[in-house]
Amino acid sequence: MDKILVVVSGIGAIAFIWWFFFGKRNETVEASAAKGGVNVIVDGGYKPQVIKVKKGEKTTISLLRKDPNSCLEEFILPDFKIKKYLPLGKRVEVEINPPRSGEFSFHCGMNMFHGKVIVE
Amino acid sequence: MTKKTFPIVGMHCASCAKLIERKLVGTPGVGGALVNYASEQATVDVEDSVSNEILAKAVREAGYKAIFSKETSKTAEDIKEEAKREELKKLKTKVIVSGFLSAVIFLGSFPEWFGISLSPLLLLFLATPVQFWGGREFYLATWSGLRNRAASMDTLIAIGTSAAYGYSVMSLFGITSGMYFDTAAIIITLILLGRFLEAKAKAHTSDAIKKLLGLQAKTARVVRGGREIDIPIEDVRVGDLIRVRPGEKVPTDGIITEGSSSIDESMVTGESLPVDKLKGSLVIGATINKTGTFIFKAERVGKDTMLSQIVRMVSEAQASRAPIQRLADSVSSYFVPIVLMIAVGVFVVWYVAGFPLQAFINMVAVLIIACPCAMGLATPTAIMVGTGRGAEKGVLIKDASALETAHKIKSIIFDKTGTLTKGSPSVTDISDAKTLAIAASLETGSEHSLAEAILKYADEKRVKRQKVSGFRAVPGKGIEGTIDGKKYFLGNVGEKDAAVRRFEDEGKTVMVLSSAGKDLGYIAVADTLKEGVPEVVEALSRRGIEVWMVTGDNARTAKAIARLSGIKNVMAEVQPHDKADKIRELKGRMGSKEAVAFVGDGINDAPALAASDVGIAMGTGTDVAIESSGITLLNKDIKSVLTAIDLSRVTLRVIRQNLFWAFGYNIVLIPVASGVLYPFFGLLLNPALAAFAMAASSISVVLNSLRLNMAKI
Questions:
Q1: pLDDT of B649-681, one tens digit each?
Q2: Interface-testing mutation among B140, B149, B196, B367, with chain A (most A C-beta atoms within 10 A)
Q3: Are B31 and B54 in contact (CB under 8 A)?
Q4: Is A88 touching B (CB cutoff 8 A)?
Q5: CB-based contact (8 Å) between B79 and chain A?
């Protein structure tokens, strides 16, 4: 009896993990120079996680780290050669001017938390 | 007059403010001063010649302290350093305290081995601080991640150790049986220790940048109004005249206006021999003046200097992504959730098989042994150390992908002039001293590049020049003039004897001196090969790389230089704008895993640099070349090409080892921790051992990358 219970709850747990981590929708924010760039809160990940920008338009991404987790202390956007140290509670601005369209992922120093910039 | 505002500390009454005001107004160059006691600020009107140091000195003499922006606003680098130091200190305390408590818990958990028996309640009392104080960061990170439905390796550690701790607490109440306080505490201690060691090692991966920043001079001795004053480097402006004495650092980039010297540029360009500098020569900031005293005019300051550009380029390259990293990148987003699912699966399988206790232990072992960190660190740490190492040798790498591509080079094309050769002609042969003397006298009025070579050579040989009358240049033929009543002609026309033809076959330009139709002697001039070219060509061939030469020169000159260099493949009479096409042609013949490199001086071969897979620009530092080339060599030494290729090869080797190790580690040990070996060998992995393996794996990746600092290149 207890074995059946363990199997059922085990399958349930796996399904839950799948849904919890892979089933989420990413919050997307469109950034434009007119709006003066985009604010990203770094707290257990990136909020918003997806940033849409226009090709050839200078956009400022302003990052504010609220999470003391040292993994998040670095913001890396490799395709734009950006690696910034984010002091806790202090805004850091990153300027990008994407020359081509596409999806460019960014991540933390340990490559644990992810997000992306979509250039259209 | 400019206005400056700066804070002052040490004031205790309004009269102190008045005292400082008086002192400041009395300082030469200060027009007016206002000191506010309440806000502890001073505002002064000063002439441009008054530096912050002078103001600081005045305030100090009054018995107070002025703080200038340099000291108050810290750079991001400083804040980072400070935060890192704090973190390391905190980690160290945690490692020591947790280590001590864990040792006691361990000794007290196995009365059958150590003869010490601690009551379960005491074990709980000892284990709790380790779990929630030592492991606090793991919980915080897990919590902030879960709120965003993201998981990191902290999630794995927090869940794994909490399971062991919680299970033991339940045993206290008789719900379950067995105590795993020792396991939970040891895991946390080992992982904290691992993080501590990893942070220490990782700090060294950015040593190169720190070293470069440390090269910057702190002050400059500026000549202003006939006086020499030492001012902070931040206050130096373009156009300032700066004196540099023997043994001193050149404070910034500029051009010598007075005096001469020999300068050691090795720290910036990697050039091993000191470089002679005369009036009009360019000097680079952060290099060291060896012998003479000189004055130079600052041309580039602050973030425009060569050193700043190097630092910027290296840090940009370190932030870029190597194509080889893509797999690790995509795996990392799925890794942790998948490990969580595997752990649940392991528990279910073992439980159903009838081993409830093993089910629990193996689940914890799986959670703890999984190490996504090693995968994340494998490529970036090697790129960081590799690019830094390159910068030390004067090899600037634009991005990680250029460094990666360079190891695939199968074909390398050298531009001739300025790359294989010195780029300026010099005298190689003369028939006799008298010919040289007459030729030099004749050429004195000429502006031709060959004339420059002859005059330089004559000066070196201390040949006295004679007075020439009736000087005339015959376009396309040569020059003529009269010395002591005798008319001479120097040029490259007329009958060519065997000797002249032989020189021409060697790629030299021969000028024959004649008078009244009779040949008197000759001077051969050629653009000479740089030192070490044949050795480099040979070394490249030994590495299986095909070496080509491309030049706009005629085939005969090209062949002569190629012969001297040991290059077999020559493309001659190629116009600058056609070089890119030639490279595309060669690329067409290559396989997809083979790369073509082009080495040029970057002045008019930007299209060729851009057309190749790896553009290597040599010894220029012009912005154009840096943009279109993947690798910039800061010195003119041809051996740097070899250094760049070797650097790429060793870096890639280290990256491959790291990735192999990181992936292999997880692929092999996650199943072992799951207990797949148990049915065959009765082998299970203790969760504490899993913690040790996991900490060791990420440290070993960082240490392997640091090994690049010692690699022979």
A1: 999 999 999 999 999 999 999 999 999 999 898
A2: B149
A3: no
A4: yes
A5: yes
